[in-house]
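user: Please review this fold.
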Amino acid sequence: MAAYLLRRLLLIVPTLIGIMVVNFTLTQFVPGGPIQQVIAQVRGEGDVFANIAGGGGDAGGVEYAGAQGLPPEFIAELEQEFGFDKPPLTRFLTMMGNYLRFDFGDSWFQSESVINLILDKLPVSITLGLWSTLLAYLISIPLGIKKAVRDGTPYDTWTSTLIIIAYAIPAFLFAVILLVLFAGGTYWRIFPLRGLTSADFDTLSTFGKIKDYLWHITLPVLVTSISGFATLTLLTKNSFLDEINKQYVMTARAKGLTERKVLYGHVFRNAMLIVIAGFPAMFVGMLFGSSILIETIFSLDGLGRLGFEATVKRDYPLIFGTLYVFGLIGLLVGILSDLMYVFVDPRIDFEKRSG
């Protein structure tokens, strides 16, 4: 197992490099780069995208749209400041060399280091992703097991109806409904409208801080977990149904074991493998997939909004820095999933499979 984990850890480096190569290449052809952003601000033209006449990126010596009337020396100084006076390959190799040492440089438009910005916003995104995943698993697994045991009954029918409705509701619509109903929009003001903590959070007692924190994250976590909860419930049910119909289950019942012993002593371990396999995708999806939307609606200052604002401004150090962190977290969670496989079923030996 140690050799397998070592190989997986070593594969992180080329995988991250591949991700960065693809995204770095794409940015070379996207119009409205950072230099055009600065030019638009200098000329007082506001949104740079409304002033792009031709397209093309900032590399390759193209003439920047909207730069008419500005001295060439000013443009050359901007190119040197942003590093666009160097070939793309040189810029990429320099960037990746720094990233492998976790040196992400400074944001071009926020006058702060990228790593400080990421570390400042990361707890908010981790909070949403972690609590949403835990909530989805805590509800979906027992519900999916019960649906499998009572397959075809009225209970299975009406719970399936509710699950399909939950899956069909868009996250932003569900968020608005919760705000209107429970955050003082029109009806009850039970939960706060925005933020992760109250203004007087630092003055509260330990219990008061925990209560305030949970009070603030309730609605965002519910919104984030609803689609994952629906998918995971059906996955759990189908996995248990598949195991329940196998020969070893009938043999265990023939030996006189109770239904509970059969279900949790034999079926559970095998059926949970496929559920655990979906953990990395679910966690990463909840962590990053809907973070921009949920963070915007609930005024949470996390990685989603940080990445979105960086993309709008073409803040490349911040864009690539957050992308690098996103990719690294996703790959590490994948390794964690393999460890959970072995924890649930020690019979699994990745070393033999890889051999």
